[in-house]
Each structure stands twice: as structure tokens, then as C-alpha cells.
């Protein structure tokens, strides 16, 4: 036990030493990755940024480099961008005001899936999902026993995962005449590091028709999943080609859940470029958003994606997270939190005590003043490009609610909508609309808001105070007009590539059950289950829900799928009776 601890401490010390000594981006490592880089993907190699690896690391040094860079990337995309208040309170508040959004997956642009054919397809999908769960969660022998496989049916077995090298297996399934390739999801720390390497890298694949390449689809995909898919391809392609030659009537199915599903989709695109493996298809359960629009659309004929209820993972990516950050910051969660604090006796007493102390001790900081300055307003735009005066910067700090502009400026559509919305209205009206303030006062409308008290308020007569406030408003208006002008004229920063779930998407939803006490039909206590084929555009936005994590687990997928199969059987019986 002591030796293991010493070894672990030594490994950690080595990693820290390599990270701090600046040896992570070694020329030899970069050259090795560049040598393995697929042809035709050098368009972004010389953009000034260090390239992300597109293949699994071959040495411990490369693995340490990827680990350290992934840690920095994960921090930059989470705590580096999200204020702690938004993480602790803003998301919860926005989730509460957003409500249940499952009904959006049943809109006019969504196609309901019904009938015996859909039920039979779901029965087959349920078997694959159970096999996938047994491979991911159970000992390998239990997986073989559940699937009815013998030792002769095992083509490849890789049970131990490493960074960008996930566990997978290939078995021969006589009942379906398929070679099944199962990829395990993120179950270990190394798997989670692979999933966290979420930078976008160039990726393309050729579409084959009648044995010839008819089209080249190019785009971007998830870095860690692309590297993992290429590693699996190197391991599995020789074995699969030999197996297909021995059993020419067998097809290839690649199956995965979560991160494993995203890797499976990318791997399928790679395998189909080989004429001998062009029968490859993919079943992806709750796949991560892993590829850009054109790549995802190109898989409609050979990739089937299944999404359960409020599962967060298929819509979670850098682009959708940026949109969510805009909405959370603009949701004005601070007054709601203040109201909740006041309604709680102990917290209300603490809050009142703090306000009293701030009113009598000038040097105590006011939480309302702890806002983003102009450096934060355009997080991706250099401040020197704004040409703002110091007075204008002070005006921005004075109006605390302008902090929500930090993410607005990072999204071109939101910025243009705000600018167009504010045309023809004065800055005081703008502050009333976006800062939650009244047009006749600089204080928030909500009582007890974060900026509801100003210690510098003069004790002069009311007429002098009104005159002073009027002059301050006129000055603030000039400065804020300068800010708005700078926002309009400043260059819009490049946006992260929006990633989507791949292929044809089938979304299982559970809606509130209608009040039919006399029908005699048995429904789940949560509501009525249904399945729809949904458009990909719906997964460019994150829809928050309290069950968004729980609905991602495979047992929840199995539960919903069983409910759906029973519901379709009931509908078939009703049609027969009619």
C-alpha cells in the first residue's frame, strides 16, 4: 500500500515537473503528430495556435502534454468563463423560470414514430443497449453469457482503457449476422479526460456510392473522440476485413453510449471509406455532440441516434454552452436570490446586518459593485480596440447589470438583436430594459437588489440632489452611447464550431398524462411516453431540467424504451379492436 502511494506521488510530481518546465510541447512530439496527420487537413495548421492532437498519444510525455492542456482547456471553458454566482445560483434560477421543455421535441417540425415497424426496431435497439450496458458495467464473462457468445465469437477484446484509447470489443453475433463492435463510454478518469479534450479539430470523410467516392464531407469534430476513433480503427480494421472476407453475408454494427456513441459515429465514417467495410452502420445511445452540421447530416443513412427525455449530453458543446451563458447572465437571477434570502429568517438577518454595516462603514465592499469591467464586457475582444475613456469605463462599472453584456458581445446574433432593439431609444431606456432599472432612477426596481444602496448619496436638499442626478444621467448617457458605438464597431470574435449529435435522431419523450380516469389504460406515473424523429437544429441549444443528468444513464434509457415498446403494443391492440 505504501509503495503504491509512493509511486502515485512520484507520478504526480513528474507530471507537475513536466508541466512547469515548459516541456509539454516538444518538437519531436509535434512532429510525430504532424507525420500521422491525415492528408488534406493542413488548412488550420498554421493559424498561430498550437494544434490539438488528432491521434492518441504514443508516449507518456505526449499523454502528459494532452492531460495538462486538457486541464487548462476545461478550466478556461468553465470557471474561466462562468462567474461562480452564475454556476451556484444563476443556472438553478434559469432552470426554474424555463420550466419543462420536453414538449418542444413534439412540435410541428418533429415527426411522430408509430406502428409495428417502429416497435420492432425499438426491440432490436433495446437488445443492443442492454449488451452495451453489460459490456460497460459488468465483467466480460457476464457480457458474453448475456449475449450468448462463446470464446470463438470474440474477435478483439481491449478491456483496459487509456487516454484516447477507450475499451472496446468485437464479437460475432450469429442471431443478427453482424459483427458487433462495442465501445465503452466514460467510466474511468482517463476516459473522462478523453471526453474533456473537447476542442474542435478538422475532420472529413468520403461518401461512397456504388464503390466509388462521390462526395467529400468536411467539417470539425471533437478532438478526443477523433483521436480515439482513429486508434480503434488502427486496431480493428485488419481484423474486420479478415472477418468480412470469411463471412461475406455479415454486416458491421458499431454501438456505444455517451462518449462511446460519439466515438462510434466518427469511427463508422472512417470504416465506410473502405469498400470492404462499407456496410458499417452505427447505433448511438445518448451520443455527445461530436461533429459539425454537414458531417452529422451525412450520417443520416447509416447512423441512428437515440436520445432519452431531458438528456443533456447530445446538446452540450462549446457553442451551446456559450448561448446558455448568455441566457443565464441575462436572466437577472440576483434579485430573485436576494428575495429568497430575505424570505429565509436566518439568511435575511445576515443580509440585513451586512447592509447595515455597509451603510455605516464606507470601506466595506458592496456586492453590487463587484461586476465585470470593460475588459469583461468584450471577453474575446482586445480592450484597446474599444477606445473607451476612463469615464466610460467607470460608467460601465456603475451600472452593475451591464455584466450580462460580456457574453452578448461574444455572439453575433445576440449582439445584432440587442443593437437593433436599442435603435431609436435612449440609453436610460436601454438601462431600464437590460439592467433592470427604472427610467427615473439609477436603482434597481427590485427592493433589496444588489445595487439598491449607494453610500455616496449626498445629504443635500432634494432639489440639489435631483439636479445632480440629472447631470449624472446626462453624462452616463454620453458614456454609454460611446460604449454602444464601440460594441457596434468592434470586430466580432470567431465563434466556436457548433457540434451536433450525428445521424438520424429518435427522441423519446414523456409528457404529462391527460386526465382520463375511465379509459383503463395504464401509463407511467410520469406521463405518456412517445417517440419522435427530431430535427438536428433543436440540439444547438441546451435545455435545462432537473433530470438532465439522470436521464443520460443507460438504465433510464432502458426504462423509457421498455415503456415505449409497451405503449406501442397497447396502441396496436387498440387499432385491432377498432
TrEMBL record:
InterPro entries membership: AB_hydrolase_fold, Fungal_lipase-type
Annotated Pfam families: Lipase_3 (PF01764)
Residue ranges, annotated region (Disordered): 24-56, 434-475
Compositionally biased tracts (Basic and acidic residues): 45-54, 459-475
Gene Ontology BP annotations: lipid metabolic process
Residue stretches of biased makeup (Polar residues): 434-443
Domain Fungal lipase-type: 181-316
UniProt-listed SUPFAM superfamilies: alpha/beta-Hydrolases (SSF53474)
Lineage: superkingdom: Eukaryota
Name recorded for this polypeptide: Fungal lipase-type domain-containing protein
Species of provenance: Panicum virgatum (Blackwell switchgrass)
Amino acid at each position: 500500500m505504501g509503495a503504491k502511494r509512493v509511486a502515485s506521488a512520484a507520478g504526480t510530481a513528474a507530471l507537475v515537473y513536466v508541466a512547469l518546465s515548459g516541456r509539454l510541447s516538444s518538437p519531436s512530439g509535434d512532429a510525430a503528430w504532424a507525420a500521422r496527420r491525415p492528408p488534406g487537413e493542413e488548412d488550420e495548421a498554421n493559424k498561430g495556435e498550437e494544434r490539438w492532437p488528432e491521434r492518441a498519444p504514443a508516449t507518456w510525455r505526449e499523454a502528459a502534454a494532452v492531460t495538462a492542456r486538457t486541464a487548462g482547456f476545461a478550466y478556461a471553458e468553465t470557471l474561466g468563463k462562468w462567474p461562480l454566482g452564475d454556476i451556484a445560483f444563476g443556472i438553478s434560477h434559469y432552470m426554474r423560470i424555463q420550466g419543462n421543455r420536453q414538449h418542444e421535441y413534439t412540435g410541428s417540425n418533429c415527426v411522430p414514430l408509430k406502428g409495428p415497424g417502429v416497435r420492432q426496431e425499438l426491440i432490436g435497439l433495446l437488445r443492443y443497449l442492454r449488451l452495451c450496458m453489460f459490456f460497460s458495467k459488468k465483467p466480460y464473462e457476464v457480457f458474453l453469457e448475456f449475449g450468448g457468445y462463446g470464446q470463438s465469437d470474440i474477435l478483439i477484446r481491449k478491456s483496459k482503457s487509456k487516454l484516447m484509447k477507450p475499451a472496446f470489443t468485437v464479437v460475432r453475433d450469429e442471431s443478427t449476422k453482424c459483427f458487433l463492435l462495442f465501445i465503452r463510454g466514460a467510466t474511468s478518469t482517463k476516459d473522462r479526460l478523453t471526453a474533456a479534450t473537447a476542442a474542435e479539430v478538422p475532420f472529413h470523410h468520403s461518401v461512397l456510392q456504388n464503390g466509388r467516392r462521390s462526395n467529400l464531407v468536411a467539417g470539425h469534430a471533437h478532438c478526443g473522440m477523433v483521436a480515439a476513433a482513429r486508434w480503434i480503427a488502427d486496431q480493428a480494421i485488419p481484423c474486420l476485413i479478415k472477418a468480412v472476407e470469411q463471412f461475406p453475408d455479415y454486416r458491421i454494427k458499431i454501438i456505444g453510449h455517451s462518449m462511446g456513441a460519439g466515438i462510434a459515429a466518427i469511427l463508422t465514417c472512417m470504416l465506410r471509406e473502405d469498400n470492404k467495410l462499407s456496410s458499417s452502420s452505427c447505433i448511438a445511445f445518448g451520443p455527445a455532440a461530436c461533429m459539425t452540421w454537414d458531417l452529422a447530416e451525412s450520417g443520416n443513412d447509416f447512423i441512428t441516434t437515440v436520445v432519452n427525455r431531458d438528456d443533456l449530453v447530445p446538446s452540450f458543446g462549446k457553442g451551446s454552452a456559450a448561448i446558455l451563458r448568455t441566457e443565464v447572465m441575462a436572466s437577472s437571477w440576483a434579485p430573485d436570490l436576494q428575495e429568497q434570502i430575505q424570505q429565509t429568517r436566518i439568511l435575511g438577518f445576515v443580509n440585513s446586518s451586512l447592509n447595515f454595516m455597509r451603510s455605516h462603514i464606507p470601506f466595506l465592499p458592496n456586492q453590487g459593485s463587484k461586476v465585470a469591467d470593460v475588459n469583461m464586457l468584450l471577453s474575446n475582444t482586445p480592450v484597446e480596440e474599444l477606445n473607451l475613456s476612463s469615464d466610460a469605463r467607470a460608467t460601465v462599472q456603475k451600472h452593475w447589470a451591464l455584466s450580462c453584456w460580456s457574453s452578448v458581445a461574444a455572439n453575433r446574433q445576440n449582439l445584432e438583436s440587442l443593437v437593433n432593439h436599442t435603435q431609436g431609444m435612449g440609453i436610460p431606456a436601454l438601462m431600464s430594459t437590460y439592467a433592470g432599472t427604472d427610467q427615473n432612477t439609477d436603482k434597481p426596481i427590485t427592493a433589496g437588489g444588489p445595487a439598491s444602496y449607494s453610500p455616496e448619496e449626498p445629504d443635500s436638499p432634494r432639489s440639489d440632489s435631483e439636479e445632480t442626478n440629472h447631470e449624472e444621467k446626462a453624462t452616463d448617457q454620453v458614456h454609454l452611447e460611446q460604449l454602444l458605438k464601440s460594441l457596434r464597431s468592434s470586430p466580432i470574435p470567431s465563434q466556436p464550431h457548433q457540434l451536433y449529435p450525428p445521424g438520424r435522431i429518435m427522441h423519446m419523450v414523456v409528457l404529462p398524462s391527460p386526465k382520463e380516469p375511465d379509459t383503463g389504460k395504464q401509463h407511467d406515473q410520469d406521463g405518456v411516453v412517445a417517440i419522435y424523429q427530431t430535427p438536428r437544429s433543436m440540439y444547438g441549444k441546451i435545455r435545462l431540467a432537473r433530470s438532465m443528468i439522470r436521464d443520460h444513464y443507460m438504465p433510464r434509457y432502458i426504462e423509457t424504451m421498455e415503456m415505449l415498446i409497451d405503449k406501442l403494443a397497447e396502441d396496436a391492440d387498440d387499432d385491432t379492436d377498432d
